[in-house]
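Quick one: co-fold with flavin mononucleotide.
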Amino acid sequence: MLKGKNVLLGISGSIAAYKSALLCRELIKKGANVKVLMTPDAVGFITPLTLSTLSKNPVYSEYSDKKTGEWNNHVELAKWADFFLLAPATQNTIAKMANGICDNLLLATYFSMQNKTYFAPAMDLDMFKHPSNQQNIERLEGFGNVLIPSENGELASGLVGEGRMAEVENIIKAISSQDRSWVGKKVVITAGPTYEAIDPVRFIGNHSSGKMGYALAEKALNKGAEVILISGPTQLTAPKGAKLIQIKSAGEMLAAVRAQEANLYICAAAVADYTVTTPSDQKIKKKTETLSIELTPTVDILAEIGANKKEGDFVVGFALETNNEVENAQSKMQRKNCDMIILNSLWDKGAGFGGNDNKITILHKDNNIQNFELKSKSAVAQDIIDSIQSKWLV
Ligand SMILES: Cc1cc2nc3c(=O)[nH]c(=O)nc-3n(C[C@H](O)[C@H](O)[C@H](O)COP(=O)(O)O)c2cc1C
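Sure, here it is.
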């Protein structure tokens, strides 16, 4: 996959920059043509001489050559590249890419790219976890850039945790395995909460943020699929390329799902089990000591999809369980005719609704069970997509 490809290797100012020399050598070994771009700060971490020797090309870090005044044309560099690989990606450079700040040659080239950009974050545990950094990473993915997830391990500071730049072999694997084998496949993903109206201003809802479903949409798009994202109310921006259908209630979500015919369904939404039998068309006044609201069960969307499943379709559900987790999830998979269930346990700290992380167990129809560590929702989404791929279309 890398043979003959023009790769712009971007390096920003992280201690992990020493690994970029090995990465450059590996890319060359695999037959790629490599040009290296460095931020001015990155030059303090690894010398341009090392990288120009390994890449067999000049290394660019300034807008112009200080001696000759010649312009290092960022537009030409961006046009030349089949893809841009930023490894390591610092918190600073990620933040600038996510917010349109263009104050060096590497950034100007990134903003001029027409082809894909991959980025491999590298930073200390607390920097990595900071909500601003997590938000910027999500934003970058939302722009269609491909995240090469950081790994767990010992960090240069001595801390241990997530934030270590992916190992060179894993970066090579990530860019080589950018398979587009889902081209021609239609994927419906449900995400977020549903709101069941009580009256024109009140509703019964839940705390689902939609992050898991949106991250899954991003990863399915990377595989080349057509993605229909049916979403309840969230604060999120749909990934570039996804068709977003916004709904509010469980009934609207059901109607939106029924209107689609897909090959793969991933039901990540937290859909209300009950809806208000007769919502008031006027705001309910505070008149009585107590107020009872009658609820009626909603249609089980996952069960309906499972019941209508055609040969070759693949159906994935989510289960949040509090006791006998695996048994209950397996029973849900059978009852609803699913191919896979993603199990969240309420007892796993940091997992589930709202946050940026999730810890899952994947249950397959063939009784295979995969347990995963606590990871960012983006990394979890990749695990889920990889797991679907291992059973579907094989
Ligand atoms: C020794 C050292 C190691 C650093 N390692 C990292 C790192 O791994 N990740 C990171 O985001 N910033 C790291 N920084 C901070 C960045 O170098 C700093 O934010 C710089 O402004 C980044 O500029 P750039 O993104 O333009 O390359 C480090 C700084 C020092 C002095």
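If it helps, Residues 219 and 386 are 9 Å apart (CA to CA).
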